[in-house]
Amino acid sequence: MEYFIEVLLPIPLERNFTYSVTPGQFGILQPGMRVAIPFGKAKLYTGLVVSLHHSPPVAYEAREVYQVLDETPLVGELQLRLWKWIASYYMCTLGEVFRTAVPGAFLLESETRVVRNPDVAEDGDSLTEEEALVMEALEHQGVLKVSQISELTDRKNVLPLLHRLLRKGAIDLQEALREDYQPKKARFVRLHPTYESDPALERLLESLTRAPKQTQVILQLFQLQQGRDKPVRSREMEDRAGTSRSVIRAMIDKGILQEYELQQDRISYGGPAETGEPAALNEEQEEALASVRQAFGQGKPVLLHGVTSSGKTEVYHHLIRECLDRGKQVLYLVPEIALTAQLTHRLQALFGARVAVFHSRQSQQERAELWQHVQRGGEKAAVILGARSALFLPFARLGLVIVDEEHENSYKQFDPAPRYHARDAAIMLASMAGAPVVLGSATPSVETYYNAQKGKFGYARMQRRFGGVLLPEIELVDLSQAYRKKQMKGHFSQRLREGISLALQEGRQVILFQNRRGYAPVVECLSCGHSPGCPHCDVTLTFHQGLQQLRCHYCGYHRALEARCQACGNATLDTKGFGTEQVEEELKELFPGATSARMDLDTTRGKYAFERIIEQFEAREVDILVGTQMVTKGLDFGNVGLVGIMNADSLLNFPHFRAHERCFQLLTQVAGRAGRTAPRGKVLIQTYNPHHQILKQVSTGDYQGMFGEQLYEREQFRYPPVVRLIKITLRHREWGRVEEGASWFAKSLRMLFDREVLGPEFPPVARIRNQYHKQILLKIPPGQSLPKTKNSIKRIEQSFDAISRFRSIRVIYNVDYI
Ligand code: ADP
Ligand code: ZN
Q1: What is the fold of 110-177?
Q2: End-to-end CA distance of the chain
Q3: Which ligand is nearest to the CA of 277?
Q4: Distance, CA 465 to ligand 1 centroid (Å)?
Q5: Which mean pLDDT values do the consecutive 10-residue runs of the chain (818 residues) have?
Q6: Of 101, 155, 265, 717, which sees the most CB atoms within 10 A?
Q7: CA dist., res. 458 & res. 454, Å (int)
Q8: Which positions fall inside the Helicase ATP-binding domain (predicted)?
Q9: Ligand 2 mean position to 735 CA, how many Å?
């Protein structure tokens, strides 16, 4: 008898490949285990066994596997089922899901690039001779491909050797992001050690009876220290004590207090010990929790619709506690890595070392370790907090799924395939695992609210902020009037400048939101009107002042800013529009006494960059935080008195059926960062359209109004949630080819789906990285079978591919395009 296995490769192939194995291997192999296999001429891949059988392949001679890599399956049955659902629902191959789902450290292949791990000190003794040889080669060469290491060691089976080195932490994969910032020192304050004993302290307090300010400072210090094992920053102390810096300085000079420095990122938070119980809920929160439980009982996903700062996170804490008590695991999804920093601290304070974070900025090895913890289902990773890819972890006993900020677009992966929606995939995962799901938001997506209205989802509502704190007061500032009356300084209206001054005077912080990064999105010649564009994409280049560069935000192309216009040669280049960098620059001029920080893609590339900015802001070392959308998403700062939106118009005028929904969500969310705990916060929105309906709805917090209007429009113009959408994009280097191919494709679709086909159309940016794009939108009305529709599309694609001049055109599907 012959022995074969079906192997899934982590590449976009329509089919699995059959390999032959020895009877011995056949005896130990199970689906979900990895094997090292040859592929093509000289390639080495890590593949996944999907089944075992005895029938040789018909079209080709089965090759032998090099090696079995696992003793137990790496991927369980539940994961495979989820992968299959994702591949079929989102119209991609299983191999693409495999590649996305599994950490790179598990998928070594001939092209993988390996480097020495710079964080680990050399410990040559623990290495075998062969391992040491690889390390030495890496030292000389810097980077080596797996195929090169294979030659070097003269071994086909180099993967186990590399896995050992990965486990020992000696090597890493090159794509892993490096920690690229210099640790910053921060100042902290504590009572001088001589007063640590109770009698000494008593004597000190007695001696200070006639110095009430100093006594006050000591009491404040104790208060700050209470219930946390985090050191107290000097800055925090100055703010809270309500006393001037000079009093604290004097006490330091007298030796009562001591100031010291710590490296900021080395501060430890909440020890590994389990420390607390979730906070007692108020009445509204209790009611919401009861509704959530009720929906769980009915087996429905439930929408927790609570205004910003109503305590959704506190409600989750109770659900998590119950789930852990049942010995099960929690998946807690957030849309943005930035959010994990704050939430980790909150969760660790309650659940200690059971909390683990998973996201794409971790090294491949860290991710691989977490994978194994989750699979074992032990204590260590019982609560997984992560961005969208965390849903691929091999949960041993999933008991609860939380999707926080469920309305966020970043839950949908755009590129590459699988173009999945993490919220929807998480709902599917939960239903496969028999676990309940809660979706949380202050501004639910129209489709989720629609599902709740139709009774498909459960619904729980919280209308009030915790602790009787009022929602911020929102004021619209008319920019055209401000310009007419000459009240602008840079991009700041007088109203906004006053607002900032007032907040700063009151010792409160400010967040400013601008939807673009860089200094200015357009550079234009005043003489001839020429604007430098990207040579590879159809966009203008953004000016970055700090770098003195023009950069393309689509492909990364950049060059130094030229002194003269490249078209007419005059030195008359000027900028148009503005980004976060310019806002920060103007701030420095307008408020020289205030410290500011910027949070956008440019300032958050390093591994701990988010954490650093958030910590500085929390510790009030920064007065004003300027940022892009990153500042809108669920951050919880206690001391923000004012949120300013520099310009709301680009959000309003965005050409997309969701533009108004998104504008409402974004502005409501960023507004929600104001006055979360302290006195009522204030929001100023600068706009040329102060009478726009959406802005009114934002300023009155009228979610229902927004929903009703949007739903009406979606019904009129037939967009989700009334129909489903599949976006089909065709891509090729030649404009004419895309043009012709797209017309052909659209015509074929129309023969079947008639009026439900929109386009083809060039998107606003039609060329990216020298590839032209053209899009077709297909609407799928309720009642029309989704699987059948997809099959028809696939058949059209087959005929398309049969036409030789179309064969090189890439066809990309985006199911549930958002
Ligand atoms: P949301 O997630 O809805 O934005 P949070 O859960 O972050 O709201 O709550 C806002 C603030 O109020 C947080 O600082 C939180 O600790 C506090 N808070 C909310 N509910 C309670 C409660 N029941 N007991 C104590 N503090 C609470
Ligand atoms: Zn470009």
Answers
A1: Arc Repressor Mutant, subunit A (1.10.10)
A2: 52
A3: 1
A4: 8
A5: 94 92 94 92 88 94 91 94 97 95 87 78 71 85 85 80 84 55 60 82 84 83 71 75 73 85 45 68 96 96 95 96 95 85 86 88 81 88 93 96 95 94 98 97 97 97 91 94 95 97 94 94 92 94 92 92 90 92 95 94 80 88 93 82 94 89 94 83 95 94 96 95 96 96 97 94 92 96 94 96 95 95
A6: 101
A7: 9
A8: 293-462
A9: 16
Say yes or no: CB of residue 93 within 6 Å of ligand 1. no
| Any atom of ligand 1 within 6 Å of the Cβ of 469 | no
DSSP H/E element including 45: strand 43-53
663 annotated among ligand-binding-site residues: no
Q: Whose CA is nearest to atom 5 of ligand 1?
A: 311
Topology of domain 4-106 in CATH is GIY-YIG endonuclease (3.40.1440)
Which ligand is the nearest neighbour of the Cα of 307?
Answer: 1
CATH of range 724-815; options 3.30.70.600, 3.30.300.30, 3.40.630.30, 3.40.50.11540:
3.30.70.600
Rounded Cα distance between 161 and 128, Å, is 10
- 705: three-class secondary structure by DSSP: helix
- The CATH homologous superfamily for domain 283-466 is P-loop containing nucleotide triphosphate hydrolases (3.40.50.300)
Smallest CA-to-CA distance from 733 within 556, 551, 536 is with: 536
Cα–Cα distance, 411 to 477 (Å, whole number): 32
- Regarding the beta carbon of 312 and ligand 1, being less than 6 Å apart is answered yes
Q: What is the pTM of this model?
A: 0.84
How many whole angstroms separate alpha carbon 111 and alpha carbon 765? 32
Mutate to test the pocket of ligand 1, among 277, 287, 314 (most ligand atoms within 8 A of CB): 314
Q: Is the CB of 342 under 6 A from ligand 1?
A: no
> Do 283-466 and 724-815 show the same overall fold?
no
